[in-house]
Design brief:
By secondary structure, this protein is an alpha/beta fold. The protein contains 5 helices and 7 strands, in the order E-H-E-E-H-E-H-H-E-H-E-E. The protein is elongated and about 55 Å long. The protein starts with 16 loop residues before the first strand and ends with a strand. It comes from Clavelina lepadiformis (Light-bulb sea squirt).
């Protein structure tokens, strides 16, 4: 699952593909209905609803958080938007410009500043052709008791290579991720 960008550095804006994170079932169903009514795709992995899928172009997040979907979307330069975006698109019966709805456009005191700014910062950086992905050329050794695949996906969508230290004999890494107490 390597990081990808088109030759122009832009994603195809005609084919929107959404993921949702942080919503209760009722609101999630409302948002999916809006996505479908506007003829876009909704990506869902029924085996693990928390899994980020790189095919998505947009992640709608209830709040800035450290979920796999939110962090992977930031690391890969996807749009990370507030749900208001979908409601306003439904009202106008068309896709609107995303910038006004992006997390980080207006900061709130309710959430950590770094988490709010990350989506906008990385999407803006990665839209420029000469900018590298956040983990580009990194070889990350991962030594954690849980969620090895989550960390692996995050590093890989961000342009790096992730290696499980529990199962490899590789000896050369640029970074090591270790869970406290390991």
């Amino acid at each position: 699952m390597a990081a990808e960008r088109s030759s122009s550095g832009e994603r195809n804006q005609n084919r929107r593909c959404f993921m949702l994170t942080g919503f209760d079932e009722e609101e999630r169903q409302r948002l999916i209905s809006i996505i479908n009514s506007l003829r876009a795709s909704y990506v869902f992995d029924s085996s693990n609803s928390q899994t980020f899928r790189p095919i998505c172009t947009h992640v709608i997040a209830k709040k800035p958080c450290r979920s796999e979907k939110f962090l992977c979307a930031c690391a890969s330069g996807k749009w990370v938007l507030k749900s208001r975006y979908l409601y306003d698109c439904q009202q106008e019966k068309k896709w609107l410009n995303e910038e006004k709805y992006e997390w980080g456009k207006k900061l709130s005191t309710k959430f950590p500043k770094e988490l709010q700014e990350a989506p906008r910062r990385w999407r803006s950086k990665l839209s420029k052709e000469d900018v590298k992905f956040p983990f580009e050329n990194w070889i990350v050794g991962i030594y954690v008791s849980k969620s090895v695949t989550v960390y692996r996906r995050l590093v890989e969508v961000g342009g790096g290579t992730a290696v499980n230290l529990r199962t490899t004999k590789k000896e050369s890494f640029s970074h090591i991720l270790v869970e406290p107490g390991q």
